[in-house]
Design goal:
With about 210 residues, this protein is of the alpha+beta class. It contains 6 helices and 16 strands. Bound molecules: zinc ion (ZN).
């Protein structure tokens, strides 16, 4: 892939147990929000600075898929996606709570700088291969999240169809596909590792 990332789509509440842990209903259709491409920073032993004066920042580990061609009706995920990565959808949880109550857009809670660190990309194993591996988030050497595509409320195919039809999907777009249960607050000095199966794809430390 060429490294230019265009639109950064994200799916909210795509794992039942995570929706439940935040007291949210299961959505009837994919819940899509976006982050600015400026939110992307590499997860390569990087030190990541997060907002310190706006309440709790939560980590949300997610699978991220890179789109390699224009969406058209009937196209399959295996035709659309060339590579994948793992990422963290950092979220200002207290800010998000206020925003949800007021009905305001999510940008302040989800779109701040460095809110979307991303590991290096690996070849997409195909929809069949995807479910053969779990992804895990290790925080300070302890596993805090484990996810598998088979636990998604909306499948990757349903997600790309929904985004492609409603908003458009083309080469260079990426999709954060939602987080499993186990989200929590981060503090200065916390270390994160993101693993695909047994392979560590990236790590970072919170400044
Ligand atoms: Zn998320």
């Amino acid at each position: 892939m060429d490294s230019m990332i265009r639109n950064v789509y994200c799916v909210g509440r795509n794992y039942r147990l995570h929706a439940a842990e935040l007291g949210n209903d299961i959505p009837q259709e994919p819940m899509i929000f976006m982050k600015p491409s400026h939110a992307i920073v590499p997860l390569d032993k990087s030190v990541i600075a997060l907002p310190k004066d706006q309440g709790a920042v939560h980590y949300e580990g997610e699978m991220v898929f890179h789109i390699n061609r224009d969406y058209e009706a009937g196209i399959t995920v295996d035709e659309l996606v060339d590579v994948m990565a793992l990422g963290i959808d950092f979220t200002l949880r207290d800010v998000q709570q206020v925003i949800k109550e007021k009905g305001h857009p999510w940008t302040a809670a989800k779109g701040f700088k460095s809110s979307a660190p991303l590991t290096s990309f690996i070849p997409f194993p195909g929809i069949e291969g995807l479910v053969s591996q779990d992804f895990t988030v290790i925080m300070n050497k302890v596993e805090v999240q484990r996810g598998n595509a088979s636990d998604m409320i909306f499948s990757v195919q349903q997600i790309v169809d929904y985004i492609g039809l409603h908003y458009g999907l083309g080469k260079g777009d990426i999709i954060f596909t939602g987080t499993p249960a186990g989200v929590g607050s981060v503090s200065s000095g916390d270390e994160f590792e993101l693993l695909w199966g047994d392979n560590q794809l990236g790590s970072c430390v919170i400044a």
